[in-house]
Amino acid sequence: MVREGVMAKDDYLPLFETKSGKGLVSFRLFAASTFAAVCVIFVYRISHMPSSNKERWAWIGLFLSELWFAFYNVISVVLRWNPAYRNTFKHRLSLRYEKVLPGIDIFVCTADPTVEPPIMVINTVLSVMSYDYPPEKLSVYLSDDGGSDLTFYAMLEASRFANQWLPFCRKFKVVPRSPEAYFRTTPEPHDNNTIMAQKWTSIKKLYEDMKTRIESTTKTGRISEEIRKEHKGFLEWDFVSSRRDHQTILQILIDGRHAKAVDSEGQPLPSLVYLAREKRPQYHHNFKAGAMNALLRVSSRISNAPIILNVDCDMYSNDSESVRDALCFLLDEEKGREIAFVQFPQVFDNLTKNDVYSSSLRILSKVDLHGFDRYGGPCYIGSGCFHKRESLCGKKYNDKACQEDLMSNKLDIIKNEEDAQVLEGICKVLASCSYEENTQWGKEMGLKYGCPVEDILTGLSIHYRGWKSVYFNPERPGFLGVAPVTLLQSLVQFKRWSEGDFEVFLTHCPFLYGHNKISLGLQFSYCMYLLWAPTSLASLYYVTVPSLCLLRGISLFPQVLNPWVIPFVYVFFGNFAYSLVEFIHLGGTCTEWLNDTRMWVYRRTTSFLFGFCDNIIKLLGFSKSAFAITAKVVDEDVSERYEQELMEFGTTSPLFTILATLALLNAFVLVGGIKRLLILEDPNINLGQNPFNMQIILCGLLVFINLPLYQAFFLRKDKGRMPSSVTNRSIAFALAACLAALQY
Ligand SMILES: *[C@@H]1O[C@H](CO)[C@@H](O)[C@H](O)[C@H]1NC(C)=O
Ligand SMILES: CC(=O)N[C@H]1CO[C@H](CO)[C@@H](O)[C@@H]1O
């Protein structure tokens, strides 16, 4: 290994450090006391089993739900037992490795030019091209599964704009390096006469002009003759019959291996490659996993960097030093060898103040993933992740292998003088449909196929092969993405995740397959997510049956003055209080916490339920999903309501029908329950001894959390209100359920 000018003592200082979290003692005490209370609840459930048959079934059901919650709670306590927080020392990295930094291949994936506008895609591309890193060691690959010449055109524009943008970023230390975000967030320099101000104005104009050209082309949907003449690449689209049926299109827009590839100041440029892999109707394209695998092969022929960063096209880089952060882990002399990937959190750029759909995933990114990290394996979440090429390509971890592979020398070995066109020809074969036939791609190599959460499954498999991973959540977010802006989008996203996660549980269960391969703590941690889907059943039971039993006059909880009520109140309200305090401690607001709790109920009763059902249907041998639910593209009105934090309904969806039915059911029951409390009450029994108090409180809380829904049924007039067909249907379902409860 080449190490120039290194001080001997520095040789042994690690490139990163790991710390434990704060407040662990209070968390553990709380967890232990909750556990004790839950045990008392179980004693109550067993010792007070009602004698009448009907009541007993409701009781047993509730008991089973509580058993499940207790089990799930144990998982979450294991996950959070001792979170790990990481910190990097980038100056040590520079001191030791600046001259021999490894090459980085950056994969950006896009799938549809209407949902993912080309201007957004190239902003992401430009932000990663301008990393604070030797440009000749960076190569940026765009996979366009939309196979769109509009996206190609935008990339062509970006390759020209980069000539100016990269020197500008370098010179004035621009942050963030997505031009759109930069010009949106940075005020114009005051003093108009400085070089900076002049440059700023001229670059801004260049950017605005480019944006206008791209957007007007995108709007018309076709490339004009003039533009077509600008690059031979457009000729490829003469052979494209549709986005699902076309040859491989591969264009090296900037060939970083060439001396000619320099920016306006003569500095080298990163390579820039556009790829639309071959698509044929008779071949399954395997979505993003297929695209990533094609990129893996193509890049191995062009730049073959040992480290790969993968980002979604809506996730621009907000920190030009993220590459160096990641390398601090991967190049660390002591621990770096066993680390397969470094995962950054998903942070979103367009959240509203109170985050009405709870998209920020605050607890997940600020607590849970740190918990994973302690056990050596945060999961791979599909974007903002630095991988070692070898581990992603299926290699097993071998503690005797040499770290030197990662060093840059490899880059130069590649036949430098190979003509770009010849190279393109060779690479096209690698991205063809038939290339993967009878190979291990999608199975043992690359990303795994056939799972809605290919990322989680791929990460888990890497852990099974003996590698570790690291979660790095710096103060300044490394990547900023776009969160869903409608309720349906958010629920559908969670449906896909829970469905895929449960499928992973069924097919790659950590307790079975991970035995002796990953630590027990990590097996538990993974299950926190993999078991989202079945959690829906217990949740659904808890939000319906106690309410229906209230209507029917079956008591399921102790009276308020009975000492047995204490563990129930402690577990129930203690958990709420704890999560509220934790939420605020992590920088949230009260309203945000309320929104988060609401979304927690909504996801559990709809998304997870559908995810569960789809798995069962698959198990029964039907391959097609029973619920074809898709979320629509967003229009202007929708964005406006999103900014006002109004929940967006506006379309019919089975998910909404369930939400609405549950909300109405609890509203009806609450009315009935209060009537029972006031009118039917025996005057000799005081309120505290009413056996239905707890059920009324539960029902009341559910009604409270559902307030935005009632508003959407009856009060709102805008287009985002609940469609009346859904309202009517749900009223019918809720009434039917109430009648059935009264009848039987
Ligand atoms: C992006 O990074 C900048 C610093 O470069 C920081 O000030 C800003 O808060 C970050 N954006 C978000 C949304 O966190
Ligand atoms: C607050 C905010 O920035 N909202 C934006 C988030 O992103 C969506 C989709 O790009 C926009 O429609 C919102 O206006």
From TrEMBL:
Stretch forming the signal peptide: none
Any one Gene Ontology BP term: cell wall organization
Residues involved in Mn(2+) binding: 288, 312
Main location: membrane
Superkingdom, taxonomy of origin: Eukaryota
UniProt keyword list: Cell wall biogenesis/degradation, Glycosyltransferase, Membrane, Transferase, Transmembrane, Transmembrane helix
Keyword Cell wall biogenesis/degradation: yes
InterPro entries given in the database record: Cellulose_synth (IPR005150), Nucleotide-diphossugar_trans (IPR029044)
Subcellular location as annotated: Endomembrane system
Pfam families: Cellulose_synt
Residues at the catalytic site: 145, 455
GO CC, one annotated term: membrane
Transmembrane segments: 25-46, 58-82, 526-544, 564-581, 655-674, 694-714
Binding site for UDP-alpha-D-glucose: 116, 145
Family: Belongs to the glycosyltransferase 2 family. Plant cellulose synthase-like E subfamily.
Job of this protein: Thought to be a Golgi-localized beta-glycan synthase that polymerize the backbones of noncellulosic polysaccharides (hemicelluloses) of plant cell wall.
Name the UniProt record assigns to this protein: Cellulose synthase-like protein E6
Organism for this UniProt entry: Ziziphus jujuba var. spinosa
Lineage: Eukaryota, Viridiplantae, Streptophyta, Embryophyta, Tracheophyta
